[in-house]
Fold this sequence. Notes:
Layout: H1 3-25, E1 29-30, E2 32-33, H2 40-51, H3 54-87, H4 89-102, H5 111-117, H6 121-146, H7 150-158, H8 163-201, H9 206-215, H10 219-247, H11 278-301
Antiparallel strand pairs: 1-2
Helix pairs in contact: 2-10, 3-4, 3-6, 3-8, 3-9, 5-6, 6-8, 7-8, 8-9, 8-10, 9-10
Amino acid sequence: MTAGRWLLRAASLGAALLVWQGLTSLDVNVWLRFEQFPTVGEVASTFAERAGTAPYWQDLTSSLRRIVTGFALAAVLGVAVGTAIARSRIAADVLGPLLEVLRPVPAIALVPVAILLFPSNEQGIVFITCTAAFFPVLVSTRHAVGALTPVWEEAVLTMGGGRARILFSVVLPGALPGIFGGLSVGIGVAWICVISAEMISGEYGVGYRTWQDYTVIDYPGVFVGMVTIGALGWLTSTAVELLGRRLTSWLPRTAASSSPATPPRSSRPARVPRTAPAAATGTAERRDLQPVQGTTTGGTQQ
Length: 302
């Protein structure tokens, strides 16, 4: 990424902060009420205070541990089940209807189920996080595997490859772009649900602390929690995208540095061969005419 793009992104964030500071410092109250909102300075001051305390980092570590555990389980299960449904008619008939019935149910609605099933709140929150990320990964994997061309599989079978060879050399590598699309969506949904679960039944975590700040009307603390959640979500989603680019580096990509005015080599018109010089052309014409002249002369002499 060029320095200009980094500068543009930083400028967009800075402009948003300036708008926030202006609306809150002026107590703007035109339909939307900003007089209750803390200013950017108040939020920054509260963040600096909490960043130097142990509870803040304990909450951050708890939320990261839950999201990593739940998302890792969802990634493994989603890819495995999605591949099985796309490749096996029996798996599609047995698992497909059940999963389609459960898929529209919001993961946060499973909080009572998690409380009844699991002996601790920690396990219940991980279960909710895993469920939230599982279905996006499942659906994207199923569609990506189903869209693969059968020519590749037939080529492996022709060369004597078995089912395991087809799975790990053709199916999974070919479906990786679609799988990582589902993983990118799943990590965002997982953050939404883990924060909600921490607000409802958590003991530690960024979501739990944010809800506690709201109950005691500590609005700068609420915004500190929101900023922390946004930063963690951005970092984890960026990590997933970078991993996806690294594992799919074999895909053709357009070079950002190439000039759009310069056409690719394959699209340039072929060179037209130069025409022969006039002198050479005339010589060739005279050579072609010599036998004819000779024949005519011979006929005249006869």
